[in-house]
Amino acid sequence: MKIHPGVKPAVWGAVVGAIVFAVVGFSALGWTLGSTAEKMATQRAETAVVAVLAPICVEKFQQQTDAAAKLVAFNKALSWDRRSLIEKGGWATMPGSSTPNSAVASACAEKLGSLT
């Protein structure tokens, strides 16, 4: 069986073209795999939830009877201890949950730290 001499370069050109097309698609055109898209969607959803729940945590903190005194004590605490203070106080524990959300506690601590 004889193959036309132009077939081999055409096949190699098609293979190289497909590889270049895939590389350009994933790097420059924003293509993603399904698993990557799933991870990105999960991260965005978690960020949105924290953005919604952090102000609720701040409000729960401010609704205490001695909120002003506790805010002064909170601001005197070391920055790395503030999240644990929020978690221990229960302000980052949302209704329907039995444990505090650490991301909400961190965001809440940042917001409370900027109140002064």
Description:
The structure is a single chain. α2 (34-62) crosses α5 (102-113) and α4 packs across α5 (102-113). The protein has helices at 7-27, 34-62, 67-76, 82-89, 102-113. The protein is 69% helix and 0% strand. The chain is mostly helical and 116 residues long.
Rg for CA atoms: 27 Å
Shape: rod-shaped
The counted number of beta strands is: 0
Termini gap: 85 Å
Write out key terms for the chains shown.
116 residues; mainly alpha; 5 helices; 69% helix; rod-shaped
Topology:
Blueprint: H1 7-27, H2 34-62, H3 67-76, H4 82-89, H5 102-113
Helix pairs in contact: 2-5, 4-5
Brief summary of the model shown:
Helix content is 69%, strand content 0%. The chain has 116 residues and is mainly α.
